[in-house]
Amino acid sequence: MQSITITKPDDFHLHIRDGDYMKCVVKHSAAQFARAIIMPNLRPPVLTTDDADAYRQRILSALNNQHDFEPLMTLYLTDNTSPEEIEKAAKSGFVKALKYYPAGATTNSDQGVTDIKKAYPALKAMSDHGLLLLMHGEVTESHIDIFDRETIFIDKVLKNLVTDFPNLKIVFEHITTRSAVEFVMQADSHVAATITPQHLLLSRNDLFRGGLRPHHYCLPILKAEDDRQAIMSAATSGNPKFFLGTDSAPHSSILKESACGCAGIYTAHIAMELYAEAFARADRLDKLEAFASNFGADFYGLPRNTGSITLIKKEQAVPESFPFANDTLTPYRAGETCAWRIQ
Ligand code: NCD
Ligand code: ZN
Fold first, then answer.
1. Is 0.70 surpassed by the pTM of this model?
2. Interval between CA 4 and ligand 1 midpoint (Å)
């Protein structure tokens, strides 16, 4: 049987929601990862260091301190985030980054940045104080083709930003296109990217395989097969600019299956198994540890984890659903299987 033991990994992009919803999902991530970057798109969003502190306490108490899991907090960048708040966040030690959502780009992003220039005072402070900028990299104009929004974002926003802030560490989150891979590769070492399991394993055909598949709908939307191959090459290349961020994003099944279903794929229950499946398909399992456990920590300036996990190639069945407060959550691969499992 094939197996691989790696240093305990980290998830550098995770949504766990709040309250009873959080209690249903956070244990999945805590069982696999040592640390996770916790996304701030709650309702209302995590805007201040005090908000992040309170959210962090709620996460730790939801886990009953049973798991050795460290939530790494982020603030939600708005047009009005002040340099003073940035300084406070940096001094806290537990806030590591700010998340940039173009207003209206995705789930709970209506308070996002309307014009990047409005955030320049905050970005300057982040650069000075060593906080990272995590970018949802899509333009939002509704006339622009949804499959082009990431590529156009690179030209319209990212290229200028990277030159205007040469010392600001920028993570281009959940990249989905060949153009994003190429941009990150040619940028200098202050630019990196996270990659999700769904963008390694699925292409846009999987949105319509035998019918409309709402549980494969996430943002940025799945792209063409050529893009998927570029993402796969980047993830498995051993280039330290590309590292793991699941973007696991739980929603109630009824909200995903409605006439206007919301964006987000839940992968936390089998996150590392999915990455193992993807890397094994590319015959690059030897590159998994660096992608999952080293490169992200290095880019964030965090110590690498001690401890390890072992993945074995043994099929596991995925449940049809998980409880989700008073609702249910339909996970990725619901009622199907995954080729790997954690020992
Ligand atoms: C995320 C969510 O549900 O919060 N959805 C998604 O499709 N990825 C938001 C995000 O990261 O875009
Ligand atoms: Zn996300």
1. yes
2. 30
Report how far Cα 280 is from the mean position of its chain's Cα atoms. Answer: 21
Q: Which residues does 152 contact at the CB level (< 8 Å), separation at least 6?
A: 139, 144
* Ligand 2 center–CA 1 separation, angstroms: 34
Tokens at residue 236, please?
């498995």
d(CA 34, CA 194) in angstroms, rounded, equals 17
Q: Which residues pair with 71 in a beta bridge?
A: 36
User: CB neighbours of 136 closer than 8 A, spacing ≥ 6?
Assistant: 99, 100, 101, 102, 105, 106, 109, 112, 173, 174, 219
> Ligand 1 in contact with 264 (CB < 6 A)?
yes
Q: Report the candidate in 242, 341, 317, 233 with the shortest Cα–Cα distance to residue 4.
A: 341
Residue 306: how many CA atoms within 13 Å on its side-chain side? 0
**Residue 283: Cβ within 10 Å count:** 9
What is the C-alpha separation between 33 and 292, in angstroms, rounded?
10
* Residue located via tokens 């709970």: 108
For residue 161, is it left (φ>0), alpha (ψ between -120 and 50) or beta? alpha
229-276 pLDDT, tens digit each: 999 999 999 999 999 999 999 999 999 999 999 999 999 999 999 999
| 181, two tokens | 């891979």
Ligand 1 lined by 245 (C-beta under 6 Å): no
Cα torsion for 251, 209, 11, 99, to the nearest 10°? -60
Which residues are marked as active site?
A: 247
Q: Which residue from 178, 137, 155 is spatially nearest to 13, judged by alpha carbons?
A: 137
Per the CB < 8 A criterion, the answer to whether 154 and 176 are in contact is: no
